[in-house]
Specification:
By secondary structure, the chain is an alpha+beta fold. The protein is about 25% helix and about 35% strand. The longest helix is centred in the last third of the chain and has 18 residues. The relative contact order is 0.19.
């Protein structure tokens, strides 16, 4: 969006080819050097035992339920070609950042699911296991309780609307509040 209602995300470069986009409403404390070191180390992979499908809905679920520490990771094709990150990061993936560690969703082939893929998490850094398990909980929650079209309820409330007790995630905008809850 441009003009009066524009909102600018903050870009935090981890390397020349990998960065985090952070919503200015969220104060994400990032140790760039620690994340750069984590990215260069081997990843921990954790598997959810749930299908991987509908990645856009999964991403929205993660971003609106992950709490503080959520951002969007993007990478240049060079980082994908050099196997620094998975190909999906090229287009942007929700990432959970905690200190010098981070985790994002992944997938692997599986005949167990109709989609042909199982959902999982790749985690990096000294707290990779812990951060990975937090992200894996989100993936499992999505895969067991919200894995269907229309699970998100998205409502925009004009400024001045009483939003006391409003469930779910909220983003305060200049002219109102965007709210997302999951059924």
């Amino acid at each position: 969006m441009q003009g009066d209602g524009a909102n600018t995300e903050r870009l935090i470069r981890i390397t020349a080819d990998v960065g985090l986009y952070v919503d200015p409403q969220h104060d994400l404390d990032v140790d760039v050097e620690a994340l750069r070191t984590a990215l260069a180390a081997p990843a921990v992979e954790l598997w959810a035992g749930t299908p991987f499908d509908m990645p856009d809905e999964l991403a929205m679920f993660q971003l609106t339920n992950g709490g503080s520490g959520m951002a969007m990771m993007h990478a240049a094709q060079k980082a994908v070609d050099e196997h620094v990150v998975e190909p999906a990061v090229r287009h942007g993936l929700p990432v959970l950042v905690q200190g010098g560690s981070f985790a994002y969703r992944t997938k692997r082939e599986s005949t167990q699911f109709a989609s042909g893929f199982e959902a999982g998490v790749r985690a990096y850094g000294p707290q990779a296991q812990q951060v990975g398990e937090r992200m894996l909980d989100l993936v499992r929650d999505w895969g067991t309780d919200h894995f269907r079209r229309g699970a998100a309820r998205i409502v925009y409330y004009p400024a001045g609307t009483d939003i006391t007790g409003l469930p779910g995630w909220r983003s305060v905008k200049r002219h109102g509040v965007l709210a997302i809850s999951w059924t």
